[in-house]
């Protein structure tokens, strides 16, 4: 009589039978079932491309908010904007609003500029402005059309003059932006560059502070200031960062001959670390001992004025 080896005899031997076996509950069948098409990499929450997609959507969302039309309300602000020749698409007046000298002035200027004047019910103006503090008048301003950095460099080259630009880093006050635009235009500069994020943009406040020069001086918006600085350097520009404790001062640096970019940081934060590290020169402005720092627009005006003077001297010597 043959003996079986191992406990349980035939029951201990493994079966080579494929497919479902008794008692599996159909698990193998479910395991083999199709799960549909593989999701794209950017739709898989654990994938790096998904994170990049979210960052891109946040960035585009912020850009969209900045590029929507703006409504300036209040009689004095509206008149100031029209005096500064801020571009506008229409003037809104609430039906039944009492006329005074400022309202009449706004209507007269709108007619002179062939600007549409629209009368709307009060509740509609409340909805358009988000509050009832509009004083019965509103001026709609279209989004500012920003230039491209490469186009600014090309235009400066075509002018035959050494280019002079200002880059603003960490400047969030639109009045500072408007004042810098005005200074760059006044001292013969070719444009202003601001970052796309965490920066003041060209709004009605910046327009008014620039005293209308925002209509003549181009402003570009850059996604990455460090790369923008490097782009200027590739095109032969000296990049000068304004900061305390620099190796040069305004008295020792000659900005009258070569194309130059002046990087201006905020009074509190200064210039970002990576942008500072990519500057060719760090320059400070000599000041009396009791003054520690200058407002960004004041510092920009001082440097631009001195560089413009140096260029006039250089031109007179050549001629």
UniProtKB/TrEMBL annotation:
SUPFAM superfamilies, sorted: alpha/beta knot, L30e-like
Chain segments annotated as transmembrane: none
Record-linked CDD domains: SpoU-like_RlmB (cd18103)
Enzyme Commission identifier(s): 2.1.1.185
One GO BP: RNA processing
Bias (Basic and acidic residues): 54-67
Gene Ontology CC terms, in alphabetical order: cytosol
PANTHER family for this protein: 23S RRNA (GUANOSINE-2'-O-)-METHYLTRANSFERASE RLMB
Protein name: rRNA methylase, putative, group 3
